[in-house]
Design brief:
Layout lengths: L9 E5 L2 E5 L17 E7 L2 E6 L10 E4 L4 E4 L3 E2 L2 E2 L4 E2 L8 E8 L21 E5 L10 E10 L8 E5 L5 E6 L7 E6 L1
């Protein structure tokens, strides 16, 4: 008996018999790969809609984020006894537009050599992931990369949300400041 593969199934044949495989041979469109800076919405917990961000780098620096659980700032690649325990934040929603913006914020060192991004984790200009209820613009001391935008049905008590992911790689950034003009920030994915 000759079997031929058909639509929706495949088979293998050996001296021990025939095996038919009817599993989906194509990847499921609903499964997303979690790439650097991928924003994961965890759901509603007392205090708001919580989220995490997959670890990535800006100029080889792992950013930090405020952790609502421990009330401390943690690196995105934080581990406890070898097990990943990334920080968990709370999304800030605009009550009018029902939107939240998740940014990677960074700035230059305050003193010479004015490295960008600031490599000292103890400084406020060290790379940090933040959530904002308004769209942010670059300043002389802070540059912002929009990682994702989250829309919801209700800003104070969300039940449905949509994540629009804009960055899916680690980044390399540069800051240019000329005269009295506002500094410009440029980013490239790596």
């Amino acid at each position: 008996m000759n079997l031929q593969p058909g639509a929706g199934y495949g088979f293998t044949s050996s001296g021990y018999g025939i095996s038919i495989d009817s599993s989906n041979p194509f990847p499921d469109d609903t499964v997303r790969t979690r790439t650097p800076f991928y924003v994961i919405v965890l759901g509603v917990v007392s205090g708001g809609l919580r989220y995490q961000v997959v670890s990535g780098t800006l100029n080889n620096l792992v950013p930090e984020m405020d952790d609502v659980v421990s009330s401390t700032e943690m690196l995105l690649d934080h581990t406890t006894e070898g097990v990943p325990t990334p920080p968990t934040g709370v999304l800030s929603f605009n009550t009018t537009t029902k939107e939240s913006w998740v940014y990677l914020r960074s700035g230059p060192e305050a003193a010479a050599p004015y490295a960008f991004p600031d490599p000292s984790i103890s400084n406020a200009t060290y790379p940090k992931v933040i959530s904002s209820d308004v769209e942010l613009s670059d300043t002389d001391t802070e540059g912002y990369v929009l990682l994702a935008k989250i829309d919801t049905d209700n800003a104070s008590s969300p039940t449905v949300w949509t994540v629009f992911q804009y960055v899916s790689n680690s980044l390399w950034g540069d800051r240019l400041k000329l005269g009295t003009n506002t500094a410009r920030y440029y980013y490239a994915r790596i």
